[in-house]
Specification:
Blueprint (H helix, E strand, L loop, with lengths): L1 E6 L4 E5 L3 H8 L7 E10 L8 E17 L4 E10 L10 E6 L4 E5 L5 H8 L10 E7 L2 E7 L4 E8 L9 H25 L4 E6 L1 H14 L2 H4 L2 E5 L5 H8 L12 H18 L4 E3 L1 H9 L3 E7 H6 L2 H16 L3 E5 L4 H8 L3 E5 L4
Parallel strand pairs: 8-11, 11-12, 14-15
Antiparallel strand pairs: 1-2, 2-7, 3-4, 3-7, 4-5, 5-6, 8-9, 9-10, 13-16, 14-16
Helix pairs in contact: 8-10
Length: about 350
Amino acid sequence: MKILEENQKQGAITVKIENLNDLWTLYNIIFKGDKASARTQRRVILKEGSKGERKPMYLKIEVESVSFHEFSNRLRIKGKILEGPEDFVNYGTYHTFNIEPRQKITIFKEKWLKNELKRLKSSSKFEDNFIMLFIAIETGLATLSLITNYSETRIASVKRNIPGKRYEQTHRKRALIEFFEAIKKILEENLKENDINLIVICGPGNTRDQFMSYIKEKSNPIYLSKIRSIYASSGTESAILEALKSKKFGQLKKNIKILQESEKIDNILTYLSMEADLVAIGFNEILKASEQGAVKELFLVDILIRNSSKEQKLKLEQIITNIENSDGKVNILSSEHSTGQQIVDLGSLVAILRYKL
């Protein structure tokens, strides 16, 4: 993200969006009550009875809602129009900005918090569009999910009745082929719709190995190089979270946010079970620890930032400032991920401490 202009007197910062990471950053910085201005298009009725035509114009709105749409590379910002060409708009009516990479936007705030400015100015080190398709598979059950740095979407669950080994082998083999074919169909449909970087097949050994053999025999060799096979204990959704923690991902963890988060959540759960005194939970406990420079790493969920009251935001700002001043690390997790949901279950704000208090 490039900062093009800063006007501290007006509380205005103009930026140019470069990638999906920038849109994600803005999603966690722009809130209800902020103001935003950008060049946009709006349908204008020039003649009564006509459908109207879309006219380019510059508008300023008071923000009411913000939504992040990663698969269309877009941030939607909705609000009431404050400024614009009087010939074409009525002030107080609603407009939605569809902000995409390469666009410019100006954000106005009564007061910019230090952590907001820091996040706006820092560039992300992560792959911004890395998409993984996970297939958790066991005999008669498969769960398919699309996982990115920002979300986890369950695509489908495939269930088939597979006869046991004591039944006639031709029936069992036919049932397995039909099961595998149904999974392959969903896989290839998603490969057409999404630019998938990695396909992970996980589950117990035998069925997973049989499915791998079937895919290698029946599939397009173009995407075979994207496939990795990883052990997991089942074909359920929990197996996908299990596979995300696998050491087999190796070097990928350096650039893929969700892989790093999965490993860190695992560390938190280990601390909770073995050294609970090194984990702090909630605003008051973490604020106290941060004031003593005791916080090594903070984990918070994006919805906590967006849904907090003004008082909570200021308290969160103080916590983040204290942690960064003592060389601690701050992680903001997506609530759309199972990793983020685990932090939500712990109260949305969790810290690992350097020492026991």
